[in-house]
Structures are given as C-alpha cells and as structure tokens.
Write a structure and sequence with these properties.
heterodimer; A: alpha+beta; Sulfite Oxidase, Chain A, domain 2; five-stranded antiparallel β-sheet; 23 strands; about 15% helix; B: mainly alpha; two-stranded antiparallel sheet; 7 helices; about 35% helix
C-alpha cells in the first residue's frame, strides 16, 4: 500500500486542504470549515470527479465507536436555552430530522430529575422487597441471567407539549419528548415470581439510584402484564441518559414512571404518594381539582416533514410523513388534512405497525404552491381519535400541563416556509 | 409462558399454565436473599398519605429556619418564594385561576411526602446529606411558612402524619378518555 494508508491522518488533512484550495476557500479555513464549504460548492459535481474518490478514505477502525457524518452535526438533541438549571430538565429528540420509527440512542429524548448518574454496574444492586415471600438482591449479572426479551416501544414524557403559549416552532419543540427504541431485558413478572408476591400486593414502588432517588408507584396489574426490566436499547447497553445499567420500562405509560437507574422495587398495598406522583405529575383542571395516577399516553401523531422551520423548495410532489403512537395499543389509522381540517384522507401506515410503538405514516401529496394548512390525526385500535387542542382545553382548561395529545397543524406559506399554525 | 388456547386446552393444562398462582410457578433461583440490614438501609420510602416508615426523632421550626437559610434559600428564596428551585410557599386559592401557583401549601395533598422528598433528594447539590432531625426541622419550617405549623412547634412522626393539607380533597382519579 502507499504511504497514504500508513499516515491516514496526514493524508486526509492534505486532502481537505487541497480541496479547500481548489474551492477557492481562504487559507485560514481549516479542515472542518473547508468540509462544510465543499458541500456547497460545485467542484465535486458532474462532470468533475469528486475529491473523495481520488484518495482512499479513513481506514477501518478510525472510529472505534462510530458517529454520524460531520455534515449531520445539526441533528442533535434540542436543549432548552433559558432553563433555570439543567439538573432537573429535559431535552428533545430532533423528530423532524429522523426517519422510520427507531430513535438513535444518541438523540433519544432525556428527562432527568437529579442529573445523570455515572454508575459502575459491578457496584449496582437491585433490591426487591416489601410484600414478597422472599426479599431478594440482584447483581446486573443476575438480571441478565433471566430469560430475555426484546420489544419495540415508544417512550414519551407526560408534558409533551404544554397547553399554553408560546408554542414551539418545530416538531421537536412541540413533541420531541417522545422517542422509540428496541428494548431488551426481562419481563418484570418473571423477576417478581422469584420473590413470590403476597396476596395483598397491589403496587410496586420503583426507586432510581440517581440524586433524586426518583420514586414512582406502579399498579401491580401493569407489573404483571408487559412491564420489563431493561438493560439494553437498540442492541447496546442502555446509555447513562436512559438509565444505565438498569431501568423499569412500562409500555404506553408516561415516561417518568419507567424509573431509570433502578435500585429498588418495593411491593406494597398502597402507592407511595411520592412527590413526583402528587405534586408534580398530576393534572390540574380548570376547576382546581387535580387528576392523579394518569398513567396512559393517549393516541397522538405529528407530521415531521414538512414541518416547522422547514421549507418546500417548489410546488409539485411532496411526501407528507410523520409518526403516530398510542399508549393503548396499535395505531389503526392516520388521516391527513390539507385544507385546514375541512376534509381528511387516510395515510399509508408503514409496516411494522406495533403495539405501543411509533408508527410511521406517509401520504403522497402534490402542492399547488398556494398557502395551505396540513395536519395529521391518529386513531388507535380502541377507536380513540386524537383530539384538537380546542377540544382538550374545553374539557381540561389550560392549566393541566400534562397529557396534551392534540392534533398539531402546520401552515405552509406561498414561499414554501412551514410554520406552526397553532398561534 | 405460552398463550393458552381456551378452546382446546384441557382443564388440567389450564390450571397448570394459565391460572396457577405466581407462588407456585417455576423459579430460576436467581439472586440471593436480601438481608434485613440491606433492606433497612435502602428503604427510605415514607408512606406519603399515612407517614408510615417515618423515623424516630423530631425537629423544630426554629432549627429548620437556620438550615433553610444555609442550604435551601439560595434556590428556593429566603422565605420559600422560589428562584432556581420551586416556589414552596403561598398560592392558596389560586388553583382554579388562570395563573395557578402550585406550592407545598397550595397543592401538595400529603405532609409526610415533604419529609420523604427532602430526605431523598434535597438539597439538590447534596441529597441524603441531612440527618433525620434536620429533615424534620426543614419540613417543619416549610409547613410553618405555609401557615400550617406554629412558629414554636416541634415536628415528629406523629405530628407530621396528623397534618391535613389544604388541597388534599381536590385529587381525583383518571377519567380519560375525556374527549369524545
């Protein structure tokens, strides 16, 4: 092989500099800037031979853990800009830049209540106690010894989005606190069987090993149904942001109940009435009453393309696509309106359509270049139809904060600019 | 477990695989018995509604004021009116208004939850650093700021569990689907 493969870094650096010079870019512009400029130039377009064909690329193993192309650096978590603090806060998945139904682990939404702990799995334990015949303690090795299962499920924060203005500009701003992954772990039921539940067991209080010692009470019916203890996400071990090394996963329930960094499960006759399930994740109604233990995330959808802050280049064919999901099961249909909600047409659902997972929908559309409002409306297998924001507010008022699953319309201007139509 | 075919499975098979109690099913003998000491040290839950598992000891409003000034006020404000951290005080009578103010005094349904949360998660920069006496004291001070405890009061397990929070009756179950 040539000396290039023996000195890949210098080779690629020279390649960038040569390209930069070829593109007429100032000599002070180093490799990163030059790359960005090259993308906008014409020197690699037909009939020219692209620079990246003229020398070998980076060698195998140049990234031991791969990262996206540097031309995709804008596809990152959407972090709040004016939060008072970032220890108990959230960041959103960049939904408008993602395809399919699986959220990459690196941009999966985050919500932490006491920061992200850095847990050594060898020093992590799960204690299972309370109303059980035999209290048990598990190592991570123990947990992985159980029969395993993998399931694709969405996870969504209960406050996604709020009911009040200012509303977000992008799909991520609005509903980026939802993501979807393939989760691997053990059925919680199997773990509970090891300890043996006593007849009066009605709830299980889950506690995280984070600085918030995050605590939520889970009804026993859910624990014996599809609840899991999860250690892997999309084929690799959980990321620290998602609960490494172990978390609860409750399909279809509001995200904070799927307690991360799980260290303890206490079987009880009553809920703990923890701070999170009394003063925080409760829904304040207009009359001053509050709903508690509002577990399920109801059916919802959003168009991710075209969506807020994107721009249609020209009239003509455009696919309308987005995601739909329901905590109550499978999505049975998604309808699209391209006339401000006056009429609706059924979208195509992309296989697989899975229970309590994101479902991708697609709708072929020809834009005539006139201003238009587009929106999607999900229906789930229970027959429940996604409501409008006005319908939700009519029942709940504007203070309930959580469980807003409203239809969200986008306005497309004559120049192709897409903005939030709910203003 | 496999799903049972209700039409063809025999009664015996049903009994064995579908409706057998959890206790009778196969175990994998994974994990080991947790000791009482291990459980006791980690079992920090307080029953929010009944104060169960509240520890012995007590704390005064006066002591709580000192700790609050030292460890809480920088986030929650000198008198608990909020800052980087949540507002803790006031707001009674605002919940049905367009600008509801949710605080310990106006919103929280149960007082023992206060002890539970302070002990497990506060102060945010050093959770589980306060001893039980100090957690009682800070709880007492926050309740005092909300007019729920006298300035001269001492709080312990019994008195904390006996406090009736003003908003307790306002919590209801989940009626959804609520939009037809």
């Amino acid at each position: 092989m040539s000396e290039l493969s023996d000195h890949p870094i210098s080779a690629s650096r020279r390649r960038f500099l040569e390209s930069a010079i070829a593109g007429g870019i100032a000599a002070t512009s180093l490799a990163g800037d030059a790359l960005a400029e090259i993308g906008k130039g014409t020197e690699n377009l037909p009939p020219k031979i692209p620079e990246w064909m003229k020398t070998p690329g980076d060698p195998v193993g140049s990234q031991l853990y791969g990262t996206p192309s540097q031309f995709e650096k804008h596809v990152v978590r959407n972090v709040p800009k004016n939060a008072a603090q970032m220890i108990s806060a959230s960041s959103r998945a960049p939904l408008q830049d993602l395809d399919g139904i699986i959220t990459p682990n690196g941009v999966f939404y985050e919500r932490h209540h006491g920061g992200i702990p850095n847990i050594d799995p060898e020093q992590h334990r799960l204690i299972l106690h309370g109303l059980v015949e035999k209290p048990l303690i598990f190592t991570m090795e123990d947990i992985r010894q159980f029969p395993s299962q993998s399931r694709i499920y969405f996870l969504e924060c209960s406050g996604n989005p709020t009911y009040t203005k200012p509303y977000g500009k992008t799909a991520s701003d609005l509903v980026g606190l939802v993501s979807c992954a393939e989760w691997t772990g053990v059925s919680l039921k199997l773990v509970l069987q090891e300890a043996g539940l006593k007849p009066e067991a009605k709830w299980i209080v889950a506690e995280g090993a984070d600085a918030a010692a995050m605590t939520r009470s889970i009804p026993i019916e859910k624990c014996l149904d599809d609840a899991m203890l999860v250690y892997s996400q999309n084929g690799e071990r959980l990321r620290p942001q998602q609960g490494y090394p172990l978390r609860v996963f409750l399909p279809g329930f509001e995200g904070n109940m799927s307690v991360k960094w799980l260290r303890r499960l206490k079987v009880t006759a009553e809920p703990a009435y923890s701070r999170e399930e009394t003063s925080k994740y409760t829904d304040l109604m207009a009359d001053g009453s509050s709903r508690e233990f509002t577990f399920y995330m109801e059916a919802k959808s959003i168009i991710t393309r075209p969506s807020g802050e994107q721009r249609l280049s020209a009239p003509g064919f455009h696919e309308i696509t987005g995601i739909a999901w329901s905590g109550h099961g499978k999505i049975s249909r998604v309808d699209i309106s391209v006339d401000e909600g006056k009429s609706w047409q059924e979208a195509q659902l992309q296989d697989p359509v899975l229970t309590r997972a994101l479902t991708r929908f697609r709708f072929p559309w020809r834009w005539d270049g006139k201003p238009v409002v587009i929106q999607s409306r999900a229906t789930d297998e229970t027959g429940y139809v996604q409501p409008t924001l006005a319908q939700l507010i009519a029942v709940r008022g504007e203070n309930s904060f959580y469980h807003n699953n409203a239809i969200w319309p986008w306005r497309i201007a004559a120049n192709g600019e897409v903005t939030n139509a709910q203003v | 477990m496999r799903k049972c075919n209700m039409r063809t499975a025999s009664a015996a098979l049903l009994a064995a695989t579908c409706i057998a109690p959890l206790q009778a099913q196969e175990r994998y003998t994974i994990g080991r018995a947790a000791t009482d000491a291990e459980i006791a040290a980690w079992n920090i839950d307080i029953g929010g509604n009944d104060g169960s598992n509240l520890p012995p000891g007590s704390g005064t409003v006066a002591r709580g004021a000192t700790i609050f000034a030292e460890q809480c006020a920088s986030c929650h404000g000198d008198k608990g009116h909020g800052g980087i951290g949540d507002r803790l005080v006031g707001g009674q009578g605002t919940l049905a208004s367009p600008k509801p103010i949710k605080t310990v005094g106006s919103y929280w349904p149960y007082a023992p939850t206060l002890f539970d949360y302070i002990r497990r998660a506060m102060p945010m920069n050093a959770p589980q650093s306060l001893n039980d006496t100090d957690v009682y004291a800070v709880s007492a001070y926050v309740l005092h700021l909300n007019g729920l405890l006298a300035a001269a009061a001492t709080l312990d397990a019994k008195s904390l569990a006996a406090i009736k929070m003003p908003n307790r009756a306002a919590f209801v179950g989940d009626p959804r689907p609520d939009v037809k």
